[in-house]
Each structure stands twice: as structure tokens, then as C-alpha cells.
Amino acid sequence: MSEREIAGKTVRFAEDGFMADPAEWDKGVAEALASEIGIAPLTEQHWKVIEFCRSDFAAQGDAPTLRRIMKVGGVPTKELYKLFPKGPAKKVAYVAGLKKPSGCI
Amino acid sequence: MKKLLILGAGTAGTMVANKLSHVLSRDEWQITIVDQNETHYYQPGFLFMPFGIYGENDVIKPKRDFIPPGVEMIMSEIELVEPAENRVRIAKDNRYLYYDFLIIATGTHPRPEETPGLNDKEWRESIHDFYTYEGAKALAKKLRTWEGGRLVLSVLELPYKCPVAPLEFIFLADWFFHERGIRDKVELTLATPLPGAFTKPRAASLLGDTLDNKNVHLVPEFYPEQVDPDNKVIVAYDEREIPYDLLVVVPVNMGAEVIGRSGLGNEMNYVPVDKHNFLSTQYDNIFALGDAANLPTSKAGSVAHFAAEVFVENFLRYIEGQPMTAQFDGHANCFIESGFGKGILIDFNYDVEPLPGKYPLPGVGPFSLLQESEMNHWGKMMFRWMYWNILLKGKEMPVTAHMSMAGKWN
């Protein structure tokens, strides 16, 4: 666990670099985290995905998979790769303040 | 009479039918199991068929041979589960089967049609799978005369059955082509959506080294969108491409369609359950076992086996109105066939990654964890006999359901 100043707030991070508590997240934090990983500015399409992932996480307790974002959230996987290039499931979870997707097999 | 209905007579369903038929009173309980196919496949054996190690007769037996007397077996497609009515509609005679408790064990199935270009004109020509009986047979025929080139194994989606099978396939392919004297004419590539050879770090590192030693090219984080069968390339969502001469895929896996139709599944038709006791999160008289459940662990027979033991203990309490105190820990173990008569064994659970050590007897073995040995290979070969004769029949195995740290080191 570590703490960092993000967008004027103190935010806690788990060892894997993902936020420790989704409740410490706000839109300012999202913008700062996104620009850290080279995604700026956040467009309406980005926000749509981020908001779906946050509400799905609140209901399911897990960051959604790409297939879930496609089938339930209605965002095609190809588009996700354009919005959050190289590893969109992980990147969107990072920006949305969620824990690292389990990626279990 | 109380009615217990089990959907699916695969590994999980058969084991549980056997175990419960021994402990539930026949005067009080009627157990019924429904399945649409007569044949029970020893699915771990599919891996060996392409290389001629197992033949067709090694992997099939009639399902009925494993259903105990006193359990009613119905061969039929399952049309719909109606949880609000506590009943299941089956195709045979359009019957309704009513239940007090329902166990869903309908498994997970390869769905090649989910990937564009796959299930097309080149399917079973230059594109193959080994997760079905027909697929393993077709690939065996192909490999007997294949003269070499680029063999690419691509995992198309997570989760899939038996997470180590793609690695084993590649290890066995390396051995097979050595034996045929054409290894120098074959380029082996393993492409996976995972960040490495396996999810858990210690095993990923060992297995990654093993791939290196066998001169296998690993392409991590490769999430395929489609196959272009004319130009023989597989294309990822991030637009990377891998050319092949022979493509072997682990298709998208999904739970049974009846689960989706009945509103019992998530987007992959897996039933959401409590990961420690398998009770549906929606209905308090429905459980899901084995691959049909959305457990955050491997989809594998070993998980179903350990889970079945915990389930039976809990179920006997649950029907008496007592709390379910046994907690499934996500225990899985598997022999990984590594070629040239050797194997690796891994043992892990939800929280503890595979570690080195000895299994099942601490310090003694006879199996070595997280390292290659000939004994581990014999364990894998012996396992087929154990599966048919002990495991499916619900008899006691000489290993514990919960993972043990004894005999392991960090």
C-alpha cells in the first residue's frame, strides 16, 4: 500500500499499482491517471466505458472483462482497443479506480 | 419424497450423483440426472490423441456405466430451467421435472463460431482444435502427414478449460516433431491473452523458461479478433498479426446455452455462485458445480473433484437447515505433461500460487511440485485409470480437498 497526491487528493494504491479503494476516485483523479498512461484528453466515449466499468464493479465486485464490456456494456472490443490501446481491460480498470482485473484462467 | 435434480452427467455431475447416492436416504430422496449425450469422454485424454499417444477407445465409455443404481438417468436435451416454478423442461416427451434442489453441472463448451473466420472453409483443414473428440481425431490425422512449417497455437478467450493444456500441447508437439525427425522444419508459437505462460508468477516463470529451452516462441497479451483463412494469419484486436501454416486454437469457451436462455448465467453463460459453497447468488435451492459455475479459478476436473467433496459435506447440512460451514478454497492441481516422458505437477488455490515441494506426502512425494520429473509423467498416465475407476464413482482419493502448505517451500 502506498499513497500519492493525485489531482489535489491523497489517493491510496495497492502493491500492483491499482487504486486501493474505488471510493477515493473522482473524475479529476481519472483524468490524472489517464494522462499518466498516455490517454488524454478523456472523450465522451472514454467516459461511457469508465462509467459502465464502475457501475458493473459496484454490482459484481470485479472489474469487467473485455467480453463483458462488449456484451453487457455494448462497446465493441475493437473500439476499446482504440480508446485504451494495448491492454484495454487493465487500462480502463486503472483509470476507473478499480482493482486490477483478475484475468483468471 | 424430496427431489434432487442434477443437470449434466459430466465429471462434476457424475461425481456428485455417486457421492450423494451413498449418503442420502433412498426412502426420502429421489435423485435424477439428465444429460443429452450417451458418451462420457475422458477429456484430459484429448490432449494425447493428436500425437497418437491415446487412441479413440482410451477416452470414451458409456455414461450409464458411471451412474449408480438408485439414481434415475434421463437422456434428453434440457430446454429450460424455470427457477420460479422449481422445474426444468426437457425435450424428451416435453416433460417437466420438478425439484426441491437443483444442481447445475452443464459444463463449458468450445464455441468456434464466436470467432470470425474460424469455423469456415479451413476448419479442420489448416485450422484445428483439440478440445473435442472430433477435433482431436482430425488433428491426429493431420499431424501424421504434416511436413512442417509454422505451427501456431492461439488461445482465443479466457477462461478456457484446463489452463495448462495449451502448454502441454506445445511441449508434446516439440517431442512429437523431434521423434519424427522434422523438429528443425517446425516453428512453434504459443499466443495467449495472458501476460505470460500462466497466470501465477512462480509457475509462469518456470513454464516460460521451459518454453525457451524448447525453442518455442511465446506471444503474450495476444487477444484474437479474427482469423483470415485465405491469407493464413490470425489477427488481434490491437491489429498485430501472426502468420501460420497450421493453426491450432483453443476456441472461445462458454457455458451451456440453456443457462443463458433460463436467465441463470452471466455474459458467458456461467452461473454466478458463492465461491466458497457454490450456492447460486439468485436462488437458494440452486447450486452450480464444476465448469458451469463462475468460480474465479481454473475450469478443470480437479477443481470439480475438490469442489464436489466440499459441496457434499455442505449439502448434508444445508438440507437440515444448518449453516454451510465447509469453505471451498479454490484448490486445483494438475499434471503438466512436458514431453520426452516427463511431467510437472502444480498445486494451488484461490490465494496461494503453485509452489515447489513434494505431493501428496510432505517431504516424500512421490510427486515433485513445480519441477520436471519422470514420476510426474507416470502420475499423469496413471490418472486416467484413477479417473474412470475412482474419481467418477465418487470414491475417496488419497488426497485432501483443501490445499495443504505441508511439504512446500517458498
Could you walk me through the main structural features you see in this protein, from its secondary elements to its overall organization?
The complex is a heterodimer of chains A (105) and B (410). Chain A is mainly alpha-helical. In chain A, 46% of the residues lie in helices and 10% in strands. Chain A has one domain. Chain A has a two-stranded antiparallel ribbon. The longest helix of chain A has 17 residues. In chain B, a hairpin with a 4-residue loop joins strand 16 and strand 17. Chain B folds into three domains: 169 residues, FAD/NAD(P)-binding domain; 142 residues, 3-Layer(bba) Sandwich (FAD/NAD(P)-binding domain), CATH 3.50.50; 56 residues, no CATH class. Chain B contains seven helices and 24 strands. Chains A and B meet through helix 3 and helix 4 of A and loops of B.
Bulk shape of chain A: globular
Can you identify the CATH class of the largest domain in chain B? Answer: Alpha Beta
Main sheet specs of chain B: 5 strands, parallel
Shape of chain B: globular
Strands of the widest sheet of chain A, in order across it, are 1-2
CATH homologous superfamily designation of the largest domain in chain B: FAD/NAD(P)-binding domain
Distance between the termini of chain B: 52 Å
Low-confidence stretches of chain A are: none
Oligomer: heterodimer
Q: What's the number of domains of chain B?
A: 3
Concise synopsis of the structure shown:
The complex is a heterodimer of chains A (105) and B (410). Chain A is mainly alpha-helical.
